[in-house]
Amino acid sequence: MNPLRLARTHAGALAVLAALVAAAALLVAALPKTMEAAYDRAFAHSVGSASADWTDLTVEYSTQDDPPEHRTAADFARRDARLREILPPVLRRLVGPGHQRASTFNLPVMKGPAADGPLFVDPTWVSGVEQRIRYVAGRPPGASDGRRFELAIVRSAAEAMNIRVGTRLRLGTVGVIDATVTGLFDVVDPGDRFWDHNRAVRAVNRVPIPGSDIYELHVNALISPESLPVLGGGERQIHYAWVIPVDTAKATAREAPALPAAIAEYERLAGVEAADPWNRFVLITRLPELLGRFLGELATAQTVMTVVLGGLLAVSLCVVLLAVQLMVERTDRALALARARGGSLRQVAGAGTGLVALGALPAALAGYGLSYAVPGPLTPVVHAGPALIAAAVVAGAAALLAVRHRAPLHERRADVVAARLSPARITVEAAVVALALGGAFLLRLRGLAVGDPFLVLVPFGLTVAVAVITVRCYPFPLRLLVRLAARRRRAVPFLGLTLAARARSFSVLPVLVLLPALAVSVFSAVVASGISSAQEHVAWNEVGAHARLQASGAFSPEAVERVRRVPGVRRVVPAQIATVRIAERHPTLVAIDLEAYRAIVAGTPLRPPGPLRDGPGIPALVPPDQVGAELTMTWNQQVKLRPQGSVTAFPGLGGLREFVVTPLDVRARMGREVEITTLFVEGDGVAAADLAQAAGAGVRVRTFGDALRAIEDEPLTATVQVVFRVVTLALGGYALAAVVLALVVGARERARALSFLRTLGLSAGQARRLTVLEVTPMILLTALAGLGLGLGLEPALGPAIDLSAYAGGAAVAGTEAWWPLLLAATLALVSILGVYVHIWLGRRAAVGAILRVNE
């Protein structure tokens, strides 16, 4: 037989098959590219957004000697070349130009300007710093003789320390330095990542003294390159550093797993470079920590995406096989006639397979070609996926045709009586169910690793097991309904439910489409909703209210009043936050009107600590292990606290460990002025810019909306959420396509049966209701099974999927039950609407066009 003639006859069915194959090929080729591109963007964001002193490789060397090999800038350059030479190849490709540094360590100012607290100034040489600063007063420092140094200090630090050009400083107690400040400078570009390694050069570092309002002021002052040879004299403690920047934009997520091992190897190689056995080169970097965090998030994303996209791919393939079954049904009469006229099985099956290949192979190639329009790296699955789909379609068609036409004129009517199951089939199906349940149990015990075959086998096995149980068990409730319908006079319910119980028109393949479609959709909805809810909880706890303002010093009464008048602000609760001392511990004090704060966060997920009761003394909430008798708190002076309960956390201050909560006026009770350092604001949608403008300079503003967007805009988080939504919509479309294809596959037999019944007096309306009754029970039962499976996948895969990385570190719990129920009901309703559409399109078929003479 000629496949081209069959193609002209069945062009419509062939076009449907080609469209579905092209869509599946595009899906399997484009989605991996999209995900890999998203992983690369997430890697660049996760690592690249961190400060340079976290991501770069800094090799440090510390000694009290004056090593001859580290005295000039040329010596540092030679050491830098050597440290780059021993880099492992995977790291060598990623590094860029860096800089070197030498500085003293914590030299106190023994003689200098008057200040409120201790001053520390450390002479420092940094290569390449001359191009990154601009002198605003004085001149650059000159050469030194080892005792007297000339220094240049950043202007902001000089103002904080009361230092001017010409100020003389005596630094240190060992190897004393007499220094003169010759210049003040500003930083050209404060955003330059160079300054992440040299923060003490760029600005003064304020170090609080616990239990006091006094700060230590630390700054690194620049010296000239000519002074470098004598910096290490006089037994001074000198820190040497070589900074090797890592350009993570050159790396991909696929290379990330190899980087931690390469960094560990480099740390070992750098450690043995020192000639002095008592001193070692030490690698300082937090890149392995960042990589570990990213790889954990990546593993979770790959786990979730494997389950979700694997389910989508399985559903799409099952729908394609339904289209193949439609082609087999449409060509059945012609191929059966050829077989009856002497055609061999090879000829008949070859003609039908050629017809399927004629539509599937070009479509798979077209889908593969369209995938190149999707940006992303090319991986092996991009090339192999479409070919495997095309091969599966052709092989499935060949097998189905070989079974169907294995004997000439072997007509079957599977809808006449219920099929009898063989013991072998029962044993196989029971084994499938047992293996699926055992796999789910083992998965909960052992968890998952990336690339673990259990990741695909367990969800797929559970789907097949539930499908087997559904197909085998659904006739029993229907037979009970058939018995009830048989007692009534109307024939339509009896006939419709009888056909549904025999399950000819709605075979196992549509069930294998609807079940994973519903299960994966429900699973995606549960996970996506759980992530969204957890993200909101984290954002609320990070901010502590609709908005939080923190001042570097204290808010003036005028500034607080301006914040109150910002449009949209309803209430403002002031607080004073400081570090205090209780015994040998240094908890964070939160002085606040707790009742007012509890009022502004009412109706939010925040759970502030319990209220404070009025009474003698100063009431307080303290750490749990300190609840009991009175406590003595030191805050410039000692004061007695009367514990009324415990506190372990306070909203908006999640990065701190121990807290003491007191009334706002605790400072006044100590005879001192209350200083407002923090404002908690109630007001939906208040812009951070408006609050910052009202509060004035030196105030950090954080709003709930900004915190939530920062979490949601993480590349991996956004990608996972988008994929969940897209997959849910795609699976809904596939569910509808499966229902329609299943109806079209059995349309000819159904039309014949209904035509016979219409000759016996069945009306057109009764025929439509009979068709609905035939199909609807399986849709509803499959929807219930898919809903149960989708809700069960989350706890089944729970040990393997830690989604806290996408929710700001919070645990992701299940969502409300109504959302999965609504989704399952919607998909079931859409499928039933597809049944009505199919019936409506075929309403004009005439009986004479379906039945033959003498039938």
Explain this structure to me?
The chain has 855 residues and is α+β, with helices and mostly antiparallel strands. Helix content is 51%, strand content 16%. The chain has 26 helices and 22 strands. The strands form 4 sheets. The chain has a 7-stranded mixed beta sheet with strand order 9-10-4-2-11-1-12. It is elongated. The model has no long low-confidence stretch (mean pLDDT 80).
Tell me about the biggest sheet?
7 strands, mixed
Strand content: 15-25%
Global shape: elongated
Could you give the distance between the termini? Answer: 29 Å
> How many helix segments?
26
Low-confidence stretches: none
Number of strands: 22
| Backbone CA Rg | 37 Å
Q: For the largest beta sheet, what order do the strands appear in spatially?
A: 9-10-4-2-11-1-12
Helix/strand structural class: alpha+beta
Q: Overall mean pLDDT score?
A: 80
Helix share bin = 40-55%
Search tags:
six-stranded mixed sheet; 51% helix; 26 helices; alpha+beta; 855 residues; seven-stranded mixed sheet; 16% strand
Show the helix and strand layout.
Layout: H1 3-9, H2 11-48, H3 52-55, E1 57-63, H4 73-85, H5 89-92, E2 99-104, E3 109-111, E4 119-126, E5 133-138, E6 148-154, H6 155-161, E7 168-171, E8 177-187, H7 199-202, E9 205-208, E10 215-222, E11 238-244, H8 259-271, E12 282-284, H9 287-330, H10 332-340, H11 345-370, H12 380-404, H13 423-446, H14 454-473, H15 475-486, H16 491-502, H17 508-543, E13 547-555, H18 557-564, E14 571-579, E15 581-582, E16 588-592, H19 594-600, E17 618-622, E18 631-635, E19 637-646, E20 659-662, H20 666-669, E21 676-682, H21 688-695, E22 699-703, H22 704-712, H23 715-745, H24 747-759, H25 764-796, H26 818-841
Parallel strand pairs: 4-10, 6-8, 16-20, 17-19
Antiparallel strand pairs: 1-11, 1-12, 2-4, 2-11, 3-7, 5-8, 7-8, 9-10, 13-21, 13-22, 14-16, 14-21, 15-18, 18-19
